[in-house]
Design a protein that fits this description.
The complex is a heterodimer of chains A (412) and B (427). Chain A has 412 residues and is an alpha+beta fold. Helix content of chain A is 42%, strand content 19%. Chain A has helices at 46-53, 65-70, 95-107, 113-132, 139-147, 162-166, 170-180, 196-206, 257-268, 274-282, 314-331, 335-352, 356-369, 374-383, 387-397; strands at 5-8, 14-19, 25-32, 74-79, 84-91, 186-192, 230-236, 242-248, 286-293, 301-308, 403-410. In chain A, the strands form two sheets. In chain A, strands 1-2-6-3-5-4 form a six-stranded mixed sheet, sandwiched between helices. In chain A, helix 9 (257-268) crosses helix 15 (387-397) and helix 12 (335-352) packs antiparallel against helix 14 (374-383). Chain B is built from 14 helices and eleven strands. In chain B, strand 9 (302-312) and strand 10 form a beta hairpin. The chains are: A alpha+beta (412), B alpha+beta (427).
Amino acid sequence: MVNFERFTLDNGLTVLVNEDKNTPLVAMNLLYKVGARDENSKKTGFAHLFEHLMFGGSANIPHFDKPLQLAGGENNAFTNNDITNYYMTIPSANIETGFWLESDRMLALAFSEKSLDVQRHVVIEEFKQRYLNQPYGDVWLLLRPLAYKEHPYRWPTIGQTTDHIRDAKMEDVKEFFRKYYKPNNAILALSGGITLERARSLCEKWFAPIPKGNDVKRNIAVEPIQSEMRKETVRRDVPADSLFLAFHGDSRLDDSYFAMDLLSDVLGNGKSSRLHKELVLKKKLFTQIGSYQTGNIDKGLFVVSGNLMDNVNSSDAEDAVFEVIQKLKNEGPDKHELEKVKNKIESVHAFGELENENKALNLCFNEMLGDANITNKLVEKYKKVSAEDIRSKAKEILKDSNCSSLHYLKEE
Amino acid sequence: MIDRSKSPNYGQLESIPAINAEKIQLRNGIVVHFINDSNQEVCQTEIVFPAGKLYNKKNLISESVIRMLEEGTIKKTGTELIDAFDYYGAYIENKPGMDHSEVSMYSLNKHADNTIPLLREMISEPAFRDEDLTRYKQRRMQMLQIQLNKADVIANRKFLSKLFGKNHPYGIEVDPQDYLKVTSDDLKDFHKFYFLGGKPKIFVAGKVDDNFIKRLDNEFGSLEFGQNDHWTEVPEQDPIVSEPGIEEIKMPGHIQSGIKIGKLFPGLKDNDSQKLYVLTAILGGYFGSRLMMNIREDKGYTYGIGSFIRHMKNGSYFAISTQVANEFYINTMNEIHLELRKLSTELVEEKELDLVKNYLTGHLLRNFDGAFEKIERHKLLVYNDLEDSYYSSLLHTIQGIDSVQLLQLAEKYFKEGGFTEIIAGLA
């Protein structure tokens, strides 16, 4: 249970505070409601590149990291398809430094050409390191455009190609900042050694003077309903064949999201799941296999992925996956399986609440979904899911016509 | 209007919180170190055996024993065992290591009556069935082959091999084919000798109530462990022989190169050890470090570069690690050596030193935030037989070190060179 207070500044910044008297540190999390789904299809990877530029100095402060390090703080950020999130942890006594730094880069960036130039290079190296110079690194560069034809989830956060990053212009940076980096498009959470009063007065001092921006209007393309199975086969210099099946699934905001999440656990979370028991242990077709879902704000993907045993034909392996799915559609999960995945959710949730950094992020994320207090109701929502809910979700989404299949094979 | 160009006041910490680990003995003498936080509903239980790679007489035995534990016991198949843990929401993580093999369980305290017996069964009654071993070997061979396609992995393996010697357990580069030689008898023998032949140590953090301790005593206190002391008696190894110099490994098709540069360093009990921690932090131990500022933030050659020190039971080393665009690897090597030379010829400026001191102090404080962090710090003390005052002494070193001391240190360790340098990729 995370107890918190909420207030909103006149400029629209929502603030959430969870005081924890047991720690001498504060976690400060600032979520901007902008991600790769907000990008132009000709300029992909921009939200993430922009995140790098947020460390390149702001209107009144030449370096972001140095003053934070001087105050004993540590910080980082991440971007995904839906959000861009900045977080830091800093000794309570020095928390005002955090407010000063975060508020100044919300007010205005330095927009330095040097920083843009260097970070273009850094991000291209990141692109290579994570997606191009790793075995299987380009899977998501292939799978996304196979599964999505219209929706911007068809490119990954890093971007569809390094060319888009190389071509990023300062005018794009300024436009992006003007549109999305506004107090009314952000949520701030503080968790740890800070009182509500102190949080409020520091917010008033540092964030309240920042002018409100225009409301963000999104016009994100809706993904048309898929009508037939899509298949792609690629060959790469990898030691083992792999299979990826992506099915269109729910949004985090859908009521049936929780049933879909538990479905992915029953089917393929860990060594006691159906896919592992049937296809690794019994049929010996895969060395490992699992399933999970992407948990996006718009309709996400339900993914099955596995590495094949040597000399197993990937089409046979795919058929075998569909047999396991069919069995689950026929019978649904049994009582033991259902209780098991629910107990596991309870445990995951409890471990997720150990650190103030996680608590601050969860508060922001759930507030964006509609109410920070969702975080305290999640376990109950999962507990309400019935075996029949899971079975009907499987029947609804785990079918050929909703599937994109990628056979990622070693070179012949 | 507030003046946004001026930093708010900030202070420096004077002390770090005490760890206050409690210690009890189970009825058979096993020592349990624990940090109780009654606000939690979860806990992390680690059973640690002095049975890492260092104890191998044959490649891959130590890591295979610990990984195979979850493949089943004499009473349960692997699926039944994992299903039982899963049912109570518990996670098992079996961690092989250079010196130790650690079995960790993350669980809800309220299910302790069910999970601790499972944990005990997994550890004391493993089956090591041939059928499971065959499958395990296939999976791990495939995983290793995938790893061997990564430039940074290849660079790191060669680096350790050159640093410790190709036959020393810390340096051996295992081959996927080595898995074929692993037999269930090897695993049973290693398990009998190193897991049951002497006493493990137990570390618990989170909610540790009386019932939890009672359960631990019922399960682990009733086991009969042998009288060996593998914590201090380590099998004889090849002597450590370091080979300095540059080695380039060509990996066709790779668009980045993995770089590893480093050398052996003094251990944790050496007088220089804590000061070297500060020195390597300045070089590459945090985002604002010299290597990051120069090679990433100024030149854009890499997504990341860093330096660190690793301490193991029989050896410690220092390393710089990065992955860079192929076309910049020579420039990167040059810049790394330039930074090493600067540290050993020029005094660190006061401003930079203040920054790194404050950063490291804050970092230390974060490393003591909560029971789960503290137990990790406590483990380091136990593993290395260090005094409780180690961390306050570290804080004292961080805050007291001056630029002359740092220069002398860099002269001693960096100036003469003697680095082992590996570059893999280069295509």
